[in-house]
Each structure stands twice: as structure tokens, then as C-alpha cells.
Amino acid sequence: MAAVTSHTVLPTGTWVVDPDHTTIEFRVKHIGLARVRGVFHRFEGVLEVGHDGRVSASGTVDAASLDTRVAARDEHLRSADFFDVERHPRLAFAATAIEPVAEDRLRIVGDLTIRGVTRSIELTAEVLGTGIDDEGATRIGLDIAGTLDRRDFGLTWNSVVDGGGMLVGNRVDLRLEVSALRRA
Q1: CA separation for the pair 7, 11 (Å, rounded)
Q2: What is the pLDDT of residue 6?
Q3: Distance from chain centroid for Cα 53
Q4: pLDDT tens for each residue of 120-147
């Protein structure tokens, strides 16, 4: 994980992603007509903001924890045609740059690894704010979005459908709704 210098609206401290209040979602077109949504249920992440303005962020996702609400599709996505979770059980992200673009908006650039392939990806984040929860813990909320081309990560399986279209779109939309707790 690289530490980068940033002058952001992020409060100092070490923030640990709370999986009970965080959603990691992807969307991809199906037959070019509709979008299929999936979520990952097991993941972890850390955001560290130093008093000197240095920021680091990283996280991992258990690829086998994906859920599209269709068991047969989930099994196919876990197979060697897609995520190949037997050989590549984790997706990983490490920020290489975090910079403010507006008062509550950030540009995040980092290295994303899927199926053992690492590519740079750009994300946008809205800092939703910080506050104290009902148990007295300090939280920060972030809404993060981005897109990627699945083929860049070796996710190339596809099938032609009637009419000549493709079963699976290549553009994948990512959405992370993050709630993180300040570590004492």
C-alpha cells in the first residue's frame, strides 16, 4: 500500500471498513438490455489519514462471496470462465493517489488486482461526512464509484445471443457505499 500526500476533507486517523454497514456492488449489462447487479459479502479495507496529509487506502474482497441472487450464475462467475476463485480467491485494491476535486469529492487512483492481473483504475468518491453512531463510535461515510473493462483483467468469457448481441457486457460499473470506524 502506497502512502500518498493529499489535502483532503478526510479527517485524520485510521478508519476500518465496517462490513455490516458497507456495500460493494457491481453492475454489468446482460444481453445489452438490462443490468445484472452483484454484491460481495466478505471484504475488508483500511483508510489511513495522517496529520501530515499523507493518505493510504487499501482493501481486499473475497471473490467467492459474490452474490447476484441466481445460484447458477454465481457458480459460473466463480469458475475459471470469470473470477477463477480456486486460483485467485481475492480481489485487491491499493490507492496510489487520492486528491480533492471539490469540497466533498475525491479522485482516487489505484491498482486493482483481479485474477492475478493488476491494472490502474480511477474512482470518484463523495465524502458523506463523519459522525458518532449510537454506540459512541466515530464513523466516516464515503460513496465511491468507477468503471472498468472486464477484459482488462482477463474476464473475457462471453456468448453470442440471438440477434448477434453478446450475453455479457464488457463495461462493469462499481459502487462502494462505505461506512468506516475510526480505530482508537
Answers
A1: 10
A2: 46
A3: 23
A4: 999 999 999 999 999 999 999 999 999 9
Among candidates 155, 175, 174, 170, which has minimal Cα distance to 29? 170
Closest CA to 43 of 183, 184, 177: 177
pLDDT greater at residue 31 or residue 178: 178
- Do the Cβ atoms of 30 and 37 come closer than 8 Å? no
Mean pLDDT of 44-64: 95
**CATH numbers and ranges of domains, the chain:** 4-182 (2.40.128.110)
Q: pTM surpassing 0.85?
A: yes
Q: How many CA atoms lie within 13 A of 50 on its CB side?
A: 10
The whole-angstrom distance between residue 141's C-alpha and the CA centroid of its chain comes to 14
> b/e for 12-48, b at 16 or more Cβ within 10 A?
ebebebeeeebebebbbbbeeeeebebebeebebebb
Reported residue count of the chain is: 184
Which residue type is seen at 80?
A
Please tell me which residue, 165 or 80, carries the higher pLDDT value.
Answer: 80
Residue 157's contacts (CB-CB under 8 Å, 6 or more residues apart) are 81, 82, 168
DSSP conformational letter for 65: G
- Determine the pLDDT at residue 8: 54
What is the C-alpha to C-alpha distance for residues 119 and 154, in angstroms, rounded to an integer? 11
